Fold this protein.
Amino acid sequence: MSLLTVRNLSVDFAGFPAVDALDLDVAEGELLGIVGESGSGKSVAMLALMGLIDAPGRVSADAMRFDGIDLLHMASAQRRHVIGKDIAMVFQDAQGSLNPSHTVGDQVRESLRTHLGLRGAALEQRVRALFEQVEIPDARRRLDAYPHQLSGGMNQRVMIAMAIACDPRLLIADEPTTALDVTIQAQVMDLLARLQRERGMSLVMITHDLAVVAEMAQRVAVMYAGQVVEQGEVDAVLSDPRHPYTAALLAALPEHNKGARRLAALPGLVPGRRDRPQGCLFAPRCSHAQGRCGGERPTLAAGVRCFFPLAAELAHG
């Protein structure tokens, strides 16, 4: 049984479907990568799972279960107990997510008091241990620092410490290396991978970086315009992409453009509120589109949402 099961999740903002009929499963101890361009619905889908979509956003789903528990219909108090303890999230903008008026130590303490009821020496010992576990140097002194006194990389480590404080079974990392330099990005990704292995927790990694997914994840879900267009084992999807969008993302990678004068690029933009196609959402940008694609909306079948999935030789071409 999956740890997380999501069926037909939709998030609507005043008539615009930011997430459109999303199905997702995450197994116990699995690392799932979710990739796609900005505006593809990756973050919004996970914010809906966390219950963080505010008005005018409307969330609907046929099912949203965590370890068999119905997240859709549970009482608010029970949901608050699950979210933040069993399911936690690392947000992409650590500087903006941390409260500038409180020390980083106090912000981690609050989570431990709320969910685990820790107090006194046990609380202090746990906070220091968390800071050391996420490799924050001189942990005791950094507990008294405010977010503006720490670097972007250190603040991201604080966010990770806060997220893992209550030993979650599912951690969602939303573009956790945004605005960090390349060296710090690699350190943060290595840290998340190590914590996932050591704790045996499930990890959903939201990213636009296919190289990160290739290196870290077991499975990948490729999102476009609010829909999953392809999903499966990482090696299979990245070596033999079936959906033209996945193939286009791979074709744009620098390592696939050696010797070329210009990087391969995918023309056009993810459709917005006013230009959402009637048929396949990717059809206006797809070099393989045929007549049927303009009038019908494909469903996800055998891991790909396409009427004319690519053969292996076309995917590599």
